[in-house]
Amino acid sequence: MNKNFKKTSARALLAFLLCTVLLCALIVPVGAALPQRERVFVGGGAFGVRYVTDGIMVVGYCDVTSGGHAKNPAKAAGIRPGDCITEINGQAVEGARALADIIENGKQAPLTLTLRRGEEIKSVTLSPLACDGDGHWRTGLWVRDTGAGIGTVTYVCENGRDFGGLGHGICDGASGCLVPLSRGTVMGVTISDVQRGEVGTPGELKGHFAANKIGALTTNTPCGVFGVLTEAQPTTAGLLPVGHRDELHEGVATCWCTLDDEGPQEYTVKISDIHRTARDNKCFTVTVTDKALLEKTGGIVQGMSGSPIVQDGRLVGAITHVLIGNPTTGYGIFIENMLAQMDGLAS
Fold it and tell me: Is the C-alpha dihedral spanning 61, 74, 219, 309 positive or negative?
């Protein structure tokens, strides 16, 4: 009787444990479900942008020969490349042409300039000099208030309108400073030619802007440019989940870019040297391995910035830079860095 009792108790205990396991498996809190992975439309299409700077951007110096000597009033006043001129003598200035007119009309009279340097507002006194060559009054400033260029769309959000591109900011070619954006227009682009990259000389996508505006560029950041399309644009690669930085691995991936009028095409690349803690736009190394792409471009060329990178069925990043000494190789940014920048702008 004792043996039968032990057998019955063991069976009862086993049955109880099985029931407990089943109940635990069935009673799952709703909050315990994994969050749904974000999805975006993969880009790869070329776009053009025309922009106006927020203030008149100082991009360099140009010495003035006055009294037989080369001088630079702007440098002497403490003005630096990257500064933005917002006011002259307390009045807002409309653009570079208006600045030149004020300098010429003011002759040698000292000018009080209000500058924005990062988050800091400064006031400096600038005294123009008469140029020996033509008698015109000069300040030694080299400035810019507009610009244009071609890049690649990295992704379009599920709403079909909000997008991110380039993977890096629009920077001034002379000073290397991030351009402060006042407003920008996104234009359609037709790629007409490719200038192949060579060692020491970066290649470039050549094209012309379409007449129609397709969107507005709203923000320029170190991790890409962001804006809104006027209407949903077709994307060849379709809707894909976002890949996390920890999921990116060394080895084969593909990139999407536009090199002619056939639209975005997919090419093979190799990922290496991953820096998982990077928060900038140089997070890993990208090497072009696709023979067709190498034949057309020599590797990575200007205009391919923002070309989306796909690995294991996920959008993981974008091409951002090319190595001047080796055009087959460049850098890429984690897609998470771009999306985090966009999310930060919205918050």
Answer: positive
Is 136 in the active site? no
Measure the CA–CA gap between 96 and 333, rounded to whole angstroms.
34
Question: How far is it, in rounded angstroms, from Cα 258 to Cα 224?
Answer: 18
Instruction: Spot the catalytic one: 83, 145, 162, 290.
Output: 290
Tens digit of pLDDT for each residue in 213-227? Answer: 999 999 999 999 999
Alpha carbon distance 196, 324 (integer Å): 12
Catalytic residue among 66, 162, 168, 175: 168
Other CB atoms within 10 Å distance of the CB of residue 74: 27
pLDDT digits (tens, 9 = 90+) for 318-342: 999 999 999 999 999 999 999 999 8
Report which of 121, 134, 124, 261 is spatially closest to residue 191, judged by C-alpha positions: 261
290 is catalytic: yes
The predicted model scores a pTM of 0.83
Per the annotation, the verdict on 134 as an active-site residue is no
* Residue 305, phi then psi, degrees to nearest 5: -55, 130
